[in-house]
Amino acid sequence: MNVRLISLTNPLVEVQGQKPDPEGLIAYCARVSSPRQDNLDYEKLLAYCIRNRHWSIFEMVDMTVEIVTSRAISPQILRHRSFVFQEFSQRYAKVQGFENYLPRRQDTGNRQNSISDLDEETVSWFAAAQDELRELSERKYDEALERGIARECARMLLPLNTQTKLYMKGSVRSWIHYIEVRTDASTQKEHRDIANAVKTVFIENFPVTSLALGWSQAAK
Fold this sequence. Notes:
alpha+beta, Gyrase A, domain 2, Single alpha-helices involved in coiled-coils or other helix-helix interfaces, 2 domains, two-stranded antiparallel ribbon, 8 helices, about 15% strand, elongated
């Protein structure tokens, strides 16, 4: 799993002779009806808008991140329909890798939850099983390609832990919602790890907004 920043909205407008940062652009757009649109101070404004749920201004700036994960997790990410996505195509390119995961015990009281308390023997068995299936599927996948079978067909031999890469672009408003939902304990751990990595990127690039939301690296 890996997450990294790809792009942020780049303001072109100048405010008092200088280009604002992305948060400054949010404030600039929020002040569209104000005679003081060129005000460089925006900490209190953004905090006020968050406190009073004036979310539309946070749609003025976009952020794009690159996410490397598995085909088991990417469908969960793609469900967030306010974002725009580009994902690695197994039809056009040869698969390059796999993601290995640690197993957890099924929570009998919640079908969407798991618990990290399995014994070492079971954990080792699961790791070996992943290796065995990866080796078999990778060998058969390569053999299928060598036989001239199309990549779009050969990919049917691949397991869900096959690695994928996607670009995820959305507004600051969408990212706030995504982070709040997917860092919750109810989210599958592997997806939660991605969301926490995204949260780190968000905090670094939107510190004023993050502070108003009560987010910090320590609380991540």
